[in-house]
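Anyone up for a design puzzle?
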């Protein structure tokens, strides 16, 4: 996500070499979703450049390759998993969690397969699971079944909150596209570990996006009071303003909990300061 085209020249300088693009992003936000690892295992040398561009406390939440989660459905994946873990090793503590995003067809009947897979994973990493089957959000016994499997190995459940997106009909092409691709499930605010992870998607409208996350700002402040260390990713259908919105969410949490440290001043493109208004 750190090379999103609409950010170039607006938030970060144009035509940065590959070895500097993540560094520019990391001046704005202190965590990133590793979506590219879903499509292919990165070269270890590439991952070394990621480590070089970020501080040790920067957080990567890296998605396991789809060959593991979607094609082989967590079965007979030893070789792919070893290759993936070897590739990301240079990140060290920056690999905050390995993200197991499961396909929409992964149902409560498949939880036993997931539990077995999680038990075989090396304890050197933290793991977080995202499910999209509606039964996990609507059926209490399915919810408890998954929570038990995750809690047994100290894994987290990543909620993808799309409730703001689906609250009213879409008003733009990007919102209409998001309606066809994003899961329509109930909001979940339960943390299973001391490192909860939240994915939130709002609307093209800044005001509606901010209004939709107010409950999350309250929840994150409460988690911090409890001694947890949450990670929150802010999306919109086009993600054009995502960097500014992420920092605004951080400020909203600080308004509720002033002892939270502010984010550092970001690297900016050589132009007028970007604004949400």
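Challenge accepted. My sequence:
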């Amino acid at each position: 996500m750190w090379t999103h085209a609409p950010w170039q020249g607006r938030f970060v300088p144009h035509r940065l070499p590959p070895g500097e693009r993540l560094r520019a992003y990391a001046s704005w936000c202190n965590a990133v979703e590793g979506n590219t690892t879903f499509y292919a295992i990165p070269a270890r040398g590439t991952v070394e450049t990621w480590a070089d561009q970020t501080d040790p406390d920067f957080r990567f939440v890296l998605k396991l390759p789809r060959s593991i989660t979607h094609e082989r459905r967590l079965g007979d994946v030893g070789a792919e998993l070893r290759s993936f873990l070897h590739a990301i090793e240079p990140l060290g503590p920056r690999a905050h969690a390995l993200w197991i995003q499961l396909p929409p067809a992964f149902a409560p009947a498949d939880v036993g397969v997931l539990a077995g897979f999680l038990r075989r994973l090396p304890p050197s990493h933290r793991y977080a699971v995202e499910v999209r089957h509606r039964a996990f959000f609507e059926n209490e016994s399915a919810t408890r079944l998954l929570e038990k499997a995750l809690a047994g190995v100290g894994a987290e459940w990543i909620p993808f909150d799309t409730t703001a997106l689906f609250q009213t009909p879409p008003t733009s092409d990007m919102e209409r596209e998001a309606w066809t691709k994003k899961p329509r499930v109930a909001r979940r605010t339960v943390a299973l570990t001391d490192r909860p992870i939240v994915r939130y998607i709002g609307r093209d409208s800044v005001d509606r996006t901010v209004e939709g996350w107010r409950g999350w700002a309250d929840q994150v402040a409460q988690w911090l009071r409890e001694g947890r260390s949450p990670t929150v990713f802010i999306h919109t259908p086009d993600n054009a303003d995502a960097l500014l919105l992420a920092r605004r969410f951080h400020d909203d949490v600080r308004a509720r909990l002033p002892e939270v440290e502010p984010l550092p001043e970001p690297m900016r493109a050589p132009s007028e300061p970007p604004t949400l208004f």
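A detail worth pointing out: Residues 159-277 form one domain.
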